[in-house]
Design brief:
Blueprint: H1 13-30, E1 32-36, E2 46-50, H2 57-64, E3 71-74, H3 85-93, E4 96-97, H4 106-118, E5 122-126, H5 144-152, E6 156-162, E7 172-177, H6 189-207, H7 218-225
Helix pairs in contact: 1-2, 1-3, 5-6
């Protein structure tokens, strides 16, 4: 007898189109989006891991990702996705995969991830587990991305988002898509660590050439910090321990 299906995201095409349209119009009106390597976006089941500078990054991805395959967003700090306007929007569209930061539901989460990938979806993960400050920096990646990819045998697609450390009107935000990283073998600790290190090296190289922008005006500074949640309590100084990648942040 086949095991029962694990509950997970339910694709709601109309809601997804509405959310994507809203994200695209808002992002392209306020910012100048530039996508590099769009042909490398996943066309089948995969895990996209992106560098994370600002609360708006997942919404920018919703604005530029292809309409197919279906996309699920993984990795909010909240366990139920009912906190925060962004999370409520993602939950309303039916594309969220919540998890408990304390890892008390990892078995159920792993089964849910496998089900989504088996159904042909793409899963998008903020691999660092939190936002950071510097455009050319990358915090250590949590082990969840590599573990899920190895366990499911799907590639990792690295995506570098630059330009969102400050959301200035009509400033360039670059979304750079890297070559897919093939994954195979058992998800042993050594394999997970090696794949995480390889993915981090690729992402770090992809963000290395983007300059840190100067702060925008009052509206831009307000918008930048509107929904940011800094573990430090406030925006850290550029070059601080967190920005330099010394704070590992939560794992997933």
């Amino acid at each position: 007898m086949a095991p029962p299906r694990v509950a997970g995201p339910v694709y709601r095409p109309i809601r997804v189109r509405i959310v994507r349209l809203v994200c695209a119009v808002a992002a392209r009106t306020y910012l100048r989006l530039r996508v590099e390597g769009a042909e490398r976006f996943a066309r089948g089941p995969a895990i996209c891991v992106f560098s994370h500078l600002n609360w708006v990054d997942p919404l920018i991805l919703l604005a530029v990702l292809p309409g197919r395959p279906a996309v699920a967003m993984f990795g909010p700090r909240e366990a139920d996705m009912r906190r925060g306007a962004r999370n409520r929007l993602i939950a309303w569209a039916g594309i969220g995969i919540p998890y408990r930061p304390a890892k008390t539901d990892m078995i159920a989460t792993t089964r849910q991830v496998k089900r989504v990938l088996d159904d042909g979806w793409v899963i998008v993960i903020a691999g660092e587990g939190r936002i950071h400050r510097g455009e050319r920096e990358l915090l250590p990646l949590a082990d969840g991305t590599a573990y899920f990819a190895l366990r499911s045998g799907v590639p990792i697609v690295p995506i570098a988002i630059n330009g969102t450390s400050w959301l200035g009107f009509r400033r360039v935000v670059r979304v750079r898509v890297g070559e897919p990283i093939a994954c195979g073998g058992r998800p042993t600790r050594e394999a997970v660590e090696a794949l995480s290190a390889r993915t981090a090296k690729v992402l770090r190289g992809m963000v290395a050439d983007f300059p840190d922008p100067v702060p925008p005006g009052r509206i831009g500074r307000w918008l930048t910090e509107l929904f940011n949640e800094w573990p430090e309590g406030s925006r850290p100084e550029l070059g601080s321990g967190a920005a330099a990648g010394l704070d590992h942040g939560p794992t997933s």
